[in-house]
Model the fold of this input.
Amino acid sequence: MKIKSVVVGVLLNVSIVLPTFTSAAVSQQEAKKLGRELTPMGADKNGNMAGTIPAWTGRLSTVPQGLSYMGSGDAYPDPYAEDKVLFTITAQNLPQHQDKLSTGQIALLKKYPQTYNIPVYPSHRDGRFAQLTESRTAWNAVNTVLVNGIDGLQYFTGGAPFPLPKNGAEVMWNARVIHPHPTLVGVLDDVAVYLNGDRQLRKQRLIVEFPYAYPQNKIGDTEAQIGKNAGLVHVNVLEPMRSNGLQTIIQEALDQVKNERQVWLYIPGSRRVRRAPTVGYDTPDGPGGLVSVDDALGFNGAMDRYNWTLLGKKEVYIPYHNYQFDSPSVDYQTLLMPGHANPAYAWSCKPCLYTQ
Done:
């Protein structure tokens, strides 16, 4: 598997500080909505009134019919390769569409009016998780609760901990720990692109284990059976050559206030393994140090420096998949432009219900 991570141009970091809250599991009656009027993971089954968001079908839980995976490292086959662009959002027609765009998208359109645009394709809602993930999620709905403020989970058994979230922290936990595959192995490319067009690459071989996704876990198993770690990570730097052989081992705790993230480094020059100092929050990472360690996977790490709130639902245009962007036939020179990724490859954009 080839994994591409891109840092482009100027980074924006926004946080909202609001009052704290408590968490409780939902009732059995409310949980019965899962798989009925809601999808098994808690999303709206129905489409929107305008017809731009279709109803969820859940028909793709395996390789799409007529397509196949040839082997490890191959690009995923695109089941929607025949889709055509419906329209393109540009700086010129921005006022017509900005009610369905994020603040960041609007800023990019205004900052790069000549090169940045958003091609919008037909929307599809066909994917679903495996039965095991859905079963664990249904159990979590009436059992999993937040503990230790918002930084710990109790009675979490894999899947999504909060398919019917009641607050912002529960939404963030869904994004942080819903790993359907117990093991991830691949080569990760981090590319920093500067506004003058210069690029800096870091290539790493990555192995990640997600203990809460192990298929042998029983529904209802808790930390006592599964352990305290949400993730186990081994990273070996391949490029740049000056860092070749630098290795990092990380134990990613489920509750990072009670059990801090543990990090060890193997430094080839000294041929020693050393315990790293505290690595978390806004510690710089990536080529050029343009991102923080908690930027990985959208957000990870301890959440205790923030208070989170759930504002509601809003229809926005989002990059729905990255089949074109991940194509091995397209090089980084084409994909990565100064200021932003190439919109011709970065966007397979669909209108979706986005939880704020």
